[in-house]
Structures are given as C-alpha cells and as structure tokens.
Automatic annotation (TrEMBL):
Keywords: ATP-binding, Cytoplasm, Fatty acid biosynthesis, Fatty acid metabolism, Ligase, Lipid biosynthesis, Lipid metabolism, Nucleotide-binding, Transferase
Complex and partners: Acetyl-CoA carboxylase is a heterohexamer composed of biotin carboxyl carrier protein (AccB), biotin carboxylase (AccC) and two subunits each of ACCase subunit alpha (AccA) and ACCase subunit beta (AccD).
Catalytic activity: N(6)-carboxybiotinyl-L-lysyl-[protein] + acetyl-CoA = N(6)-biotinyl-L-lysyl-[protein] + malonyl-CoA
The organism of origin for this protein: Flavobacterium rhamnosiphilum
Source lineage: Bacteria, Pseudomonadati, Bacteroidota, Flavobacteriia, Flavobacteriales
EC number of this enzyme: 2.1.3.15
HAMAP family documented for this protein: AcetylCoA_CT_beta
Localization: Cytoplasm
Sequence ranges assigned to domain CoA carboxyltransferase N-terminal in this UniProt record: 24-284
Coiled-coil intervals: none
The protein's name in its UniProt record: Acetyl-coenzyme A carboxylase carboxyl transferase subunit beta
Origin: domain of life: Bacteria
Length: 284
C-alpha cells in the first residue's frame, strides 16, 4: 500500500516493526549473489554461486582444521598493555576494553594445539575483528610461544594471517614483532619442522613483511588481498600506474609470491598434504 494512503486507512505501524524477516538471515556477496546465512555457514562461508570467500575468524578456522573442533588453546588470557599511554580518538586502554567486550577475544591472534586428520599440529590464527587484526606485542609473543611449543613437541606449525599490519598504538613495540617472529621461524627451520603460511583477506603491512611470507609453503584463499602498502601509497611512491588487481592472491601466484591458492573446502586436506610432503621428502 502506498505510504500516503496509510494514515487515511488507519495504518500507523512503523515499517520496521512490520518486517517479517529478521536481519542477518541473508548474505549478499560483492557480485550480487544472495545466499541464506545458514547455508553460507554450512558451506564454510563461501558463496556457492560465485565462490566468494567471506571473511571468517579463528573460531571458524579452528572448526575447519581441527578434528571435531577439539584443541587446547595456548596463552588464552594474555592481553595487551598500554606502555605508551597512547591516545588518538580515544585512549588505547579504553579501545582495548571496548573491543574485548565486543569480540569476546583477548587480542588479535589465538593459538590452538590439536589433531588435524589425526596428526598433531599447532595453529596460530589472526582475527581481523580485533582492531583490524593489527600486530602488537601480544600478537608477536603468542606467535613466538606457539612456535616454541611446536619446536619443543616436534610439531608442524601453521600460521593463518588476516591483518591490517602493525598496531600503531604500540609504535616500536609493534615493529619489533617483525624481527621477533622471523627469528622464531628461523629456529623452527633449524629444527626441521614444517611451516605452512596461509594468507587470507586481507594480509597487509608488517604481517606480510614478516611471518606471512616466510612459510616453507605459502598459500592463500581465492581473491585475498595481499600486499605491504595500499595501492595509493604504492602509486604515489613509484609514480607509476599499477596493474589491475596487482595485490590479489591470483596476481601474486602468477608472479611467484605464492605457491598455491586453495579453496576453503580443501584447506584441511591441502595443509596436511603439504606437511606430509615436507616431512616425508626432507626438503629442508
């Protein structure tokens, strides 16, 4: 019924109160494909019509990769401090408190130890929902401790990156994590243990400049944004026009920066296959 006839017909119910379908039951992919939210979850958050991979977090990746979603979380209560008493639009301490309340996460990475296809492994997974997956001191420390656990117990190590880069509120403390995690990965290599790096959308900044691109095998999900600086910064720095899609996983694969692109449905099988290849062929 036209809105201008509602009043004369005695209809005064607000439109939002007449909605028959609650919000959040449907998902629209960037290409315009519509999918039921429950079906999307059953399909591992991949749109079946166009293959678009929706961003997910550590909870979903652990469900996908660990057998029966059974794992032990390491350092789960480790939280960030505010050594610089940083303030931008709000105090960093307040920002941490707010985001922990909203996401129910302690920081931007979680570490799980469990079995995948019957084999024990360590998985560190970043959460973009926590301040853009930014890399602060806690992120670096938890990754370092995850690698230490892998070395001590002679387990493969998997890193799932999803990050906007270094956490500016921690300044140099954040940048130190690039070296810290890289050194730990060198120790993992000396122990001849496999390291699989999975780049998801987005993997940028200091994350890309350190652990995300140091895998024995570097893989990605389809369509992931992977790069160091944003396109505008790169364009302004180089003074050149950039190729279309130059920071997509497909472009990086074509130019040798990735080994494989793996759809989410195949992640568990492919990660275990790559680990077996490294261990059985002693390619290190």
């Amino acid at each position: 019924m036209a809105w201008f006839k509602r009043k004369e017909k005695g209809i005064t119910t607000a439109t939002e109160d007449k909605m028959d379908i609650p919000k959040g039951l449907w998902y629209k992919s960037p290409t315009g494909k519509i999918i039921d939210a429950e079906e999307l979850a059953r399909n591992l958050f991949v749109s079946p019509e166009d293959g678009f991979h929706v961003r997910i977090g550590s909870t979903e990746y652990f469900q996908i990769l660990f057998d029966n979603n059974e794992f032990v979380e390491l350092d789960e209560n480790m939280t960030s401090k505010d050594p610089l008493h940083f303030v931008d639009t709000k105090k960093y301490a307040d920002r941490l408190k707010d985001v922990m309340g909203k996401t129910k996460l302690k920081d931007a990475v979680r570490t799980g130890v469990g079995k995948s296809k019957g084999k024990d492994l360590v998985i560190c997974c970043m959460d973009f929902a926590f301040i853009g997956g930014s890399m602060g001191a806690v992120v670096g420390e938890k990754i370092a401790r995850g690698i230490d656990h892998a070395i001590k117990n002679k387990l493969p190590f998997v890193m799932i990156s999803k990050s906007g880069g270094a956490r500016m509120m921690e300044a140099a403390y954040s940048l130190m994590q690039l070296a810290k995690t890289s050194v730990k990965l060198a120790q993992l290599a000396e122990a001849k243990l496999p390291y699989i790096s999975l780049c998801t959308d987005p993997t940028t900044g200091g994350t890309t400049a350190s652990y995300a691109m140091l895998g024995d095998i570097n893989i990605s999900e389809p369509g992931a944004l992977i790069g160091f600086a944003g396109p505008r910064v790169v364009r302004d720095t180089t003074g050149k026009d950039l190729p279309e899609g130059f920071q997509t996983a497909e472009f990086l694969l074509e130019h040798g920066f990735l080994d494989f692109i793996t759809p989410r449905k195949e992640l568990k099988d492919k990660i275990n296959l790559y680990i077996d290849l490294i261990q059985n062929n002693n390619i290190r």
